[in-house]
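re: ur question from earlier - yeah i can do the single chain one, its not a big deal. heres the input i used so u can compare w yours
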Amino acid sequence: MITGTTKLIAHLGYPTESFKAPLIYNPYFEKNGIDAVVVPMGCRPEDYPAFLKLLFRLSNIHGALITMPHKISTMALLDETSTNAKVAGSCNAVRLGSDGALIGDMFDGEGFVRGVLRKGKKVEGAHALIAGAGGVGSAIAASLAQAGVAHLAIFDANEATAAALLDRLKKYYPQLQVTVGSADPDGFDIVVNATPLGMRRGDPLPIDIDRISPSTFVGEVVMTKEITPFLEAVRARGCAFQVGTDMLFEQIPAYLEFFEFPTTTADNLRAIAKLG
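and the output i got, formated as tokens:
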């Protein structure tokens, strides 16, 4: 039940038809008696800068979830941003500070890292390869750096994209060993597919499977299919792995903490979500 005391969390993007967050957050809020609601709000890019500022003038606004195509443009509209958001170059959560400041953070990578840790894989001191330096790959790189990896290797078919992520990592983590230009997974403890490869039938595999050790932990970001051809191949090699939707569910407890709501576990969220 939405009342005059309900805290609003806007889910901002365009278009809204594919939004899943309300089907996860709202059942959790209802079950736990939390007087809050996530509301999809479709906002076109040309209207977004003005709309975000006006949205946070509402007396009952509590925060916003940010999705495509607004994650990058949000950065210029904030008063405070986390290091994760700065390294990622994008933001997917905004809340109102006590002084009225707009505070932004990025949780895509946090969800990925929490999932890896919960599966028992050590991240601190690890050597990690990320294929794909776009939005999600940059967010994962930021969170792996924050978690203390010893070496990050970045590969992207667009060399300028990889170079830009390298520059941001060097700025905020000057002691971190970062290399770019190779997708060879040999010798890495953690390997991540952060490309769209695997979303469409017939896509090539993003990484040479024959070069991945069975002891390597493999992460996937594609969510359209739980076991992608890439995960099917690494599973056959004996690798431990993480499916794409794990990153989604694991980041929600971090969002709840950011919004200062009672938090929970990814398993609990999966059990009560109404994704159909």
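Residues 109-242 form a domain with the Rossmann fold fold (CATH 3.40.50.720). not sure if urs matches, ping me
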